[in-house]
Amino acid sequence: MKPRSLPFLLGLLAAGAFTAAAAEPTVLFKQGDNDYGIYRMPGLVLTKSGTLIASAEGRKTLEMRWSQAAPFIRVSKDQGKTWSDAKPFASAPADAKQNPVLVDKGAAEPGQIGVHNLTAIADKDGGVHWLYTVEYSRVFYVKTDDNGENGSEPVEITAAFDAFKDEVDWKLIATGPGHGIQLKDGGRLVVPVWVSDGTEGIGLQAAASATIFSDDGGKTWRRGEIVAKHFTLEKTKTGTAVELPSEGAIAQAADGTVVLNIRNKALKGQRVQSTSKDGATGWSEAAFVEGLMEPICQGSLVSAGDAGLVFANPANMIMRKSLTARVSKDGGKTYPASFVIDDGVAGYSDLASDGSTVYAIYERGAAPSDRDPEGIAFTSFA
Question: What is the distance between the alpha carbons of residues 292 and 327, in angstroms, rounded to a whole number?
């Protein structure tokens, strides 16, 4: 049978008449590959030429999750049917120093350096913008061609995060993970970020979610307004206040509105969302989204053209499993239609779309737990 178009499928989903099925997943990264004990933090970007670039963060051990780590990429030029071999993408600069907070909190071994949270944006010119974090204390920017190659020299952009210090005296910072966006009008680049003061009550969890942006093609970066900030536990007992907002998923709706959907630990158990006209300022008050459960896990969001916005995260409040796509036809106000991408153990994810197909990459399998995936898998639905 000829595959249906994405708008057709999502229309049927909205009518409750069809359940879409994702293609059989392909494992792109697995435990032990390239001498790394585990892979986390999947990312996916679709370039102007139709090339897919998948990324994942290799970590040497399961126990010290923020210790020795490095990002890898794989490239597909045939919509994910075949992939290039994995290759390392970025390394720490020679002057990198270990973040003492990671050692103090037992998340890293002394003397080891990690490169984390690779985040990509496909540019209209065909190139790809990349941001990554070193030791969760410095952030760097690189631009490559549409194959993830011929990269520019890394430029440190930590100064954009230093501008947050008047509101959060951060000790930990991160981009993404997943992808950022380029706005349709003007070409602004926008990346979701989080910052943390690393205090006893917050630990390694984020204290605030925000964005950084560039209006000159990545040459310079500035901070946006803080979108959601942590409230003390005393204020969250009713479940109505945002607690520990962190990793954000971002997309631009059909009307140009920028939607930021945020992981959090509020008792209400729902995702938090905010909107802005420019992706940097004028954010609406962060509000819980009915129907989007929050299993305290990263989620992903993408614009699928006329089909609307597609959001994905584990649809289970007990463990990371049943990765589910939810569809919004009203710019993220509601997500009434859903279907399961993978009904097994599944965690972090990222989405990309060309308007007719949605591509997904995600953590899959439990080895030994739902937070220690067997590998990073790719699939699609059209």
Answer: 11
Evaluate the CA torsion angle 293, 359, 45, 47 in order and state its sign: negative
Q: What is the DSSP letter of 102?
A: H
DSSP 31: T
pLDDT of the residue at 266 = 86
Looking at residue 195, its pLDDT comes to 97
Under a CB-based contact definition with an 8 Å cutoff, are residues 346 and 334 in contact?
A: no
Which residue would you say has higher pLDDT here, 243 or 82? 82
Q: E strands of 145-243, at which residues?
A: 155-156, 172-175, 178-179, 181-182, 189-196, 208-214, 222-223, 228-229
Nearest to 49 by CA among 127, 116, 117: 127
- Cα 332 to Cα 275: distance, rounded to the nearest angstrom: 9
Q: Are 66 and 114 in contact (CB under 8 A)?
A: yes
pTM score over 0.90: yes
Residue 3 token pair: 């595959």
Task: Check: CB of residue 49 under 8 Å from CB of residue 125.
Answer: no
Domain boundary assignment for the chain: 1-30+296-382
Task: Kindly report, residue by residue over 293-349, the tens digit of the pLDDT.
Answer: 999 999 999 999 988 999 999 999 989 999 999 999 999 999 999 999 999 999 999
Q: Which two tokens stand for residue 356?
A: 């007719």
22 three-state secondary structure: coil
Give 361's strand partners: 350, 378
Cβ contacts of 373-376, under 8 Å, gap ≥ 24: 373/38, 373/39, 373/40, 373/345, 373/346, 373/347, 374/27, 374/30, 374/31, 375/27, 375/28, 375/29, 375/30, 375/31, 375/39, 376/27, 376/28, 376/29, 376/30, 376/39, 376/42, 376/54, 376/56
**pLDDT of 154-191, one tens digit each?**
999 999 999 999 999 999 999 999 999 999 999 999 99
Averaged pLDDT score across all residues of the chain: 91
